[in-house]
Amino acid sequence: MAGFDEKTTREGGTPETRGKMIAVCSAKGGIGRTILSVNLAVSLSKRNHSVAVLDGDFQFGDVSLAMDLQHTFTIKEAMDGIGSLDEHRLEDYLSVHGSGVRVLPAPERPEYADILTKEAVSKMADFLLMKHDFVVCDTGAGLNEQTLNLVEKADEILVVATLEMAAMKNTKLLLETLDILGLRDKVRVVLNRANMESVIKAEDGARILGEEAPIYIPNDFQTCSRSLNMGSPFVIANAKSDIAKAVFKMAELIASNKAGEGIGKKKENPLSLFPWKRKKGGISK
Ligand SMILES: Nc1ncnc2c1ncn2[C@@H]1O[C@H](COP(=O)(O)OP(=O)(O)OP(=O)(O)O)[C@@H](O)[C@H]1O
Ligand SMILES: [Mg+2]
Questions:
Q1: Does residue 164's CB lie within 6 angstroms of at least one atom of ligand 1?
Q2: How far apart are alpha carbons 148 and 127 in whole angstroms?
Q3: Which whole-number Å values give the CA distances from 101 to 48, 104, 136, 277, in the listed order?
Q4: Closest C-alpha residue for ligand 1 atom 12
Q5: Number of structural domains, the chain?
Q6: How far apart are CA 112 and CA 105, in angstroms?
Q7: What secondary structure letter does DSSP report for 185?
Q8: What sequence ranges are listed for the domain AAA (predicted)?
Q9: Residues whose CB is under 5 A from ligand 2 (ion)?
Q10: What is d(CA 46, CA 233) in angstroms, rounded to the nearest whole number?
Q11: CATH code of residue 218
């Protein structure tokens, strides 16, 4: 794409200079993982970081589409050459967006997802982390084995939720599962479409999910659908919109946190999802 400077990747990559991996996941599909992954990646790149996106929605990933990339290779071809792959060779499989963000696209066909082993994906994520400051990883909905592998590797897990009842219920379950797996400390909850019409208000959503300070992303369907359908990230095409400002803020928050530092604050006694179960004063166990 013309009009943007292509940033170069970082050279080398010792463990001390390993980049930071951000996994973007959600309990349900269609909740905004891809749009937020793409716009977060571009926002980080605008802050002069070198950024790669790993499309970890291996069956139906659409990061390439969301960034209007005509890719030559996908992770499937990288997998075919895994024996001789290293951090330098992997770069040849990436597609470069005009913003400088490099993308390892998901396979062309859903059945190719089956040939990707967790070990190979981990290796590729490590290679990307050696060359980039940030690796943003979009994932498939829910917690399948591949997504679990990616969230375990990640330094930060963004759990994206909306205020619909089913999304709340399933996000609560996802957070509980991540807690059981010992991963809850890496989680930041992102309440997407936070000001949409809903029975559950944004503050209640945060309390139900037991998150003291979630990241709020406003509802803006026009900007989002244009961004996805034109393959033109809104943080470039519509940088002054409220939603772009919210994503810039999220990028700032993430960039200012060093890998592994304490992340989202968990509430001790989350609010029950069901009003009839709430105790007086609003909190129930
Ligand atoms: N903040 C928002 N405001 C309005 N619409 C939004 C917002 N975030 C996402 N959307 C819309 O929600 C839909 C789903 O977005 P997206 O594809 O990013 O979700 P996803 O979680 O990646 O979905 P999938 O499970 O299909 O991969 C799109 O139509 C998008 O435009
Ligand atoms: Mg998606």
A1: no
A2: 19
A3: 10, 10, 10, 47
A4: 32
A5: 1
A6: 12
A7: G
A8: 20-181
A9: 33-34
A10: 12
A11: 3.40.50.300
